[in-house]
Specification:
It is a single chain. Helices cover 30% and strands 16% of the residues. By secondary structure, the protein is an alpha+beta fold. It has a domain of 155 residues: Alpha-Beta Plaits. Strands 1-2 form a two-stranded antiparallel ribbon. The two termini are 50 Å apart.
């Protein structure tokens, strides 16, 4: 009460509150009309959702696209500027401000009981662009410290790990290199799978010292449902 500068909060007797609240008279026609409108809107929403879902799951009407699944990370990913997993968990108040400003949908509320509603990072819908520092600008609790674009480009929140069994180069026999082409730090290179044969299929090799864990490789990997390359988090962030 003392903190409100506009006097918008005050105590009142319960009887006075009841006197001020009057129940509006609703006719049966209004109820029926509201029901019809609700059913119409619900049916339209359901139909639109089905159509949109079908559009997302089918590639040009030829092939079904599976949704990506979250990999089983040993260490959770926390945003650049959070210093470490422990610091982030200790100071985060789950206010969701960073989630609301994340342009690439990398941050989302956690469903884990240990970190319930605290933001978690995952790269199924996007990756953490090196030029974006929005989350560090809005965090009010110190869970994510303010950082510049140049600082973010040198913060290593994790490193990429290649999973041979999932790579389309080996499973489908096609050329890819998506992870290497889109790596902003040049931490991934394509090399011959057979060192003795230059013409053998090229597979990615990760330079852990240069990787910052942005997740571009994981997000843009065509392998489904699990990416052939994913980012493993670091307990304490490093500088590359």
């Amino acid at each position: 009460l003392d903190k409100c500068r506009h006097g918008a909060i005050k105590y009142m007797r319960r009887s006075a509150v009841k006197d001020k609240i009057s129940s509006p008279v609703v006719t049966q026609d209004q109820i029926d009309s509201a029901r019809r409108n609700f059913l119409s809107v619900s049916a339209l929403f359901a139909a639109t959702t089905v159509i949109k879902a079908q559009e997302k799951k089918v590639d040009g009407g030829l092939a079904v696209i599976e949704d990506k699944k979250i990999p089983n990370r040993v260490v959770a990913l926390t945003p650049p500027g959070s210093l470490s997993v422990r610091n982030f968990a200790k100071h985060c108040t789950a206010c969701q401000l960073c989630v609301s400003v994340c342009l690439n949908q990398v941050l989302r509320p956690s469903g884990s009981l240990m970190t319930l509603m605290q933001p978690e990072m995952s790269y199924e819908r996007g990756y953490c662009r090196p030029e974006c520092t929005k989350c560090s600008e809005v965090c009010p609790a110190g869970a994510i410290r303010p950082i510049s674009v140049s600082e973010k480009s040198s913060i290593q929140i994790g490193h990429a790990v290649w999973i041979k069994e999932n790579c389309v180069v080996l499973t489908d026999g096609v050329d890819c290199g998506n992870c290497a082409r889109h790596c902003p730090t040049g931490a991934i290179q394509m090399v011959a799978s057979d060192p003795e044969s230059y013409d053998s299929p090229k597979i990615p090799v990760v330079n852990i010292e240069r990787c910052i864990g942005c997740g571009a490789c994981e997000n843009l990997c065509p392998a489904r449902p699990f990416s052939a390359i994913y980012v493993e988090g670091h307990e304490t962030h490093k500088t590359v």
